[in-house]
Amino acid sequence: MDSNNKRKAETGADIAANNNRKKSKGPKGWQVAKRGQKLAKASGPSIEAGDAGIWATCDKNTEGKCTAELRDLFNEYAERIYGKSEMVDTRARGDGEAEGDIEADIKHEIEGLQVGRRTPLFQPVRLEVQCVLFFKTRAPVEPVSFVHGICADAMKGTLGSRSRCVRKLTPMTLMGKATEKSLEEVSRVVLGPHFHAEGVSPKTVGRLSAVACTGVSRNGGRSLAEPAGRKKFAIRFSCRNHQTLTRDAVIKQVADAVGRPHSVDLGKYDALIIVEIYKNMCGMSVVGNDFEALRRYNLAEIHDARRAHQVAEGRRGEE
Q: Which pTM was predicted?
């Protein structure tokens, strides 16, 4: 065989050049994020003890669009209820930011804080779970009455189609750590105004039961342990990405926090206690007895019910 036709052995320089040519054949637009970029992307508002807010669920793969819809809906209601003085101007989007981009929304919130602007009434929080959103709120927003007003308007048909991706809203009066001790503290703060007389806990009610029965005390006729009416209550519990506190343990602890003379009635309650646990955080709120009538604050079900009612009314009119 002719020695000129033999393949020459590749040198180190030839191997390096071949490897570089192979790497360059891939898509030119692909880049690995730098470490600093990763940290910036993951940063943003988080759920902390002492927060109040609103949970929301949405259709799959619509988290960004749902965040944009809820932000606009919440801001509109807040301006109507609290006035423009409580609102915070939102920054205009950049050319490369699409509407409904949750990362851009969180970025705008952070930038607003960094330049010393007032905290927005509603801050979206990025969660590591699909179809679930959380908006942190600040005073003067009271999550329970705020969500109730939205759902009541949806039931009346005045909400329009501004919530096409939104499903259920769940208000949280107070968030705390998902521990027995923190649950006790959250229960005391949230349940007190609904079930206990001012400054009186269930333990105090037990110690002063004799005085409570007579209704006579040294403060001018009314017992310190006298509750503002006996109530029937129920507890609704939900848990995501948490394995420490069990359902039965949480329900028992919350029921004990309510205490006497109130009683459990799952069908005809006067007040419903909602407990939501996500990872290491636990939230609680108390809603009224129209919770079922308002479709458990599920905007999608409210819209479906209204459309079905309108169709039925139209058929009656044709007959």
A: 0.71
